């Protein structure tokens, strides 16, 4: 059937709507298997009637759908920054449309549906992998994240990671589109070729098994997964300090007093960990002499009665570089001297040991904590979005540090945005973490889908690594998440809370932890080869 061009825009928007209502945490992810079908119908029209379309039509017609999807699912960013929301939504939609344009170009030049749709799979997954690993990272809408609220469907992420979910979704969309393309519309006048009926039946059965078998396997795995008993006792605090009006103005003794007032009644001699959220301490502490600061002294005093207790808390820290010390790209110059310093979003481990242990957030939020490091773009630092606290590109750690603790297991700290990155998160586990801790500050977005989506992604990290997680949010949602992805004692938004619970440690490594995003790496190589083949074929037809 030939569509009018206005209908193609409507089909594109339809894709945006379907993808949006399939998205967590309140959508139904089964819709993701048909979310790209209208866009594939649009692209197919361009192949069938090339004389009707210009060179970049695939980009122009797919962009409205991707823009609508980004807008409906991530609009809540505007609560923290209007400029940041516009950049994230507009640019991410453009990147997706460019991927779709590249797929169309490859299918057109190679003149092969199989090559074309293989290119779509490879290009999209390569794009998602790029989004996990560059300075402008924004993997929030990576398709595999779409099952975060229906995590019982994807227990097999322990083998593939969330990229496996992306592969599952894209192939499902292609299969369903190819099935529909065998019918002639309009429906009131369609014809079903008798000679193809057996093939279409077999094809339909294959599609059913493509979607159903992973779900059945996952439900079976979920029902039969048993945790080994290695109990670790946690107290998690949700202080509910307003990030806009309180967090960067309250005196350190007030903040520490609020944390310990909540935690005090829950702590006893059996408690292994006390966890407070990201950025809880805002005292502009210098790591060159960290123990001299009021917040650290007060916290060490508070845990003195509990020599077996390990306390993890987030804060902003700084480090003054010694003269002649190499300057990292995020180094900042003092305004009144020739010296330099680094600024960090840090997770600080405090215990009865004399030394403090620090981990610096390394997957930084674009536009807030990091700007592109490409040569010549350093000036963009001046436009970093001010959400309070330290502004501009922050320092990072090169290793995923695991804390040595007093009389208990090794733990890994993931700070806020880092919990979206599967392979990155798994590096803590590969380095020895037996339990994971997530500290975050989700109050920036208000009581919207943003903080609920962020929480739901932790289900996937627990499954990929088979590690229990203790999650402390400044305000909603704090919880304990077990190795199957189930959440326990989840707190409400914007209510001060403390939860006390036991999670099981685990020292076994999943296939995904051992091998990371191997699917994405393979698809990235394949995408490169297909792109080279497309360019080569284009040159050949133009000049030979």
Number of domains: 2
Strand content: 5-15%
Number of helices, where a helix is a run of at least 4 consecutive DSSP H or I residues: 14
Q: Name the CATH class of the largest domain.
A: Alpha Beta
Strand/helix succession:
HHHHHHHHEHEEHEEEEEHEHEEEEHH
Structure description:
This protein is an alpha/beta fold and 544 residues long. It has two domains: 5-225 and 518-543; 231-505, Nitrilase/N-carbamoyl-D-aminoacid amidohydrolase, CATH 3.60.110. The chain is built from 14 helices and 13 strands. It has helices spanning 5-21, 37-48, 57-74, 82-110, 113-131, 157-160, 162-180, 197-224, 252-263, 294-303, 422-430, 449-465, 511-515, 518-543, and strands at 231-238, 273-275, 281-286, 310-320, 332-333, 340-350, 357-360, 411-415, 435-440, 469-473, 479-481, 487-488, 497-504. Strands 1, 2, 3, 4, 5, 6, 7 and 13 form an eight-stranded mixed β-sheet that branches. Strands 8-9-10-11-12 form a five-stranded mixed β-sheet, with helices on one face. α3 runs antiparallel to α4, α4 (82-110) crosses α14 and α11 packs across α12. The two termini are 34 Å apart. The model is unreliable at 184-192 and 379-390 (pLDDT under 50).
